[in-house]
Amino acid sequence: MSTPPAPDPYGNEPGYRNPYGTPAYATYEEPADHRQDNGPGRPGPRVDAGRLWAGGAVTAVVAALAAVVCVLLVRGVLGVPVFAPEGNGAFGDASTGLLAGAAFVATLVATLLLHLLILAVPQPGRFFQWIIGLATAAMTLMPFTTDLPWTAKFGTAAVYLVIGVAVGSLLSAVGRSAMRGAGQTAR
Description:
This protein has helices at residues 49-77, 94-120, 124-141, 150-178, and strands at 46-47, 179-180. It is an all-alpha fold. The radius of gyration is 26 Å and the shape is rod-shaped. The termini are far apart. The model is unreliable at 30-38 and 181-186 (pLDDT under 50).
């Protein structure tokens, strides 16, 4: 006496043969050209580089604009002479443009760092957050090592802090978004 065949979990009739040669319940495997190979049995992290760099470029624009807006707030509204002598108005002088340009370039460097971390280390997001957090802390504390007036020290520190928080939070989100693949997150 033979045992009746087990019911097909996908509702196919008994004796159904898939015309494509694989069982009807076969799992999908990602095409080989979409995987990185880090050796036998160790698929590497997958990152959408276009998405990462597009997000990094937009974050760089946000960082530059944040620098300009912060200088406007600190100089124009609060009247604290940061990044230029007091007589240069709300925008300051060329140093405001240099600050915005430096924020833009620093954000692109941070994007490169994030890309390398995603490719090379476990939990790249955590390492990235620590690196950006410590760099922001260093930049925020730097004005307090100078002989500037206290108002200028706090104003400069606030500008650096806002830029660092913007870059860190936005690039962390961009990194998580650019990661793809099962179990891969940028924590």
